């Protein structure tokens, strides 16, 4: 069996909940959300042409904290989410449902 077939079979098995506990599914959902948020921060920062240090300065954080956020190693609090949104000159949109998480920074328009 080649790799692509093995991968498809593995995904089908996981999708069918073979041996995966509710706790494991919840952990996977948390990881997906952290990764989606990390990617949204990274993408918006790159869109603005900013370094991690630039974002850190704008948000009143350290560069190391921004790095941990982009690496999905930090769980942001609500005040931190607000500070990041302001630093990235955007609104933060988070949509959560049973099967999918979506995180996006939406650029603010000039008023």
TrEMBL record:
<dbReference type="Pfam" id="PF13560">
    <property type="entry name" value="HTH_31"/>
</dbReference>
<dbReference type="InterPro" id="IPR050807">
    <property type="entry name" value="TransReg_Diox_bact_type"/>
</dbReference>
<keyword id="KW-0238">DNA-binding</keyword>
<dbReference type="InterPro" id="IPR010982">
    <property type="entry name" value="Lambda_DNA-bd_dom_sf"/>
</dbReference>
<feature type="compositionally biased region" description="Basic and acidic residues">
    <location>
        <begin position="9"/>
        <end position="25"/>
    </location>
</feature>
<feature type="domain" description="HTH cro/C1-type">
    <location>
        <begin position="41"/>
        <end position="95"/>
    </location>
</feature>
<feature type="region of interest" description="Disordered">
    <location>
        <begin position="1"/>
        <end position="25"/>
    </location>
</feature>
<dbReference type="InterPro" id="IPR001387">
    <property type="entry name" value="Cro/C1-type_HTH"/>
</dbReference>
<protein>
    <recommendedName>
        <fullName>HTH cro/C1-type domain-containing protein</fullName>
    </recommendedName>
</protein>
């Amino acid at each position: 069996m080649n790799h692509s077939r093995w991968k498809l079979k593995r995904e089908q098995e996981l999708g069918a909940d073979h041996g995966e506990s509710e706790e494991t599914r919840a952990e996977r959902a948390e990881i997906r959300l952290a990764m989606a948020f990390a990617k949204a921060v990274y993408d918006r920062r790159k869109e603005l042409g900013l370094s991690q240090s630039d974002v850190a300065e704008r948000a009143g954080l350290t560069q190391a904290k921004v790095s941990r956020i982009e690496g999905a190693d930090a769980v942001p609090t609500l005040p931190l989410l607000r500070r990041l949104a302001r630093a990235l000159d955007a609104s933060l949109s988070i949509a959560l449902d049973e099967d999918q998480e979506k995180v996006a920074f939406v650029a603010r328009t000039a008023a």
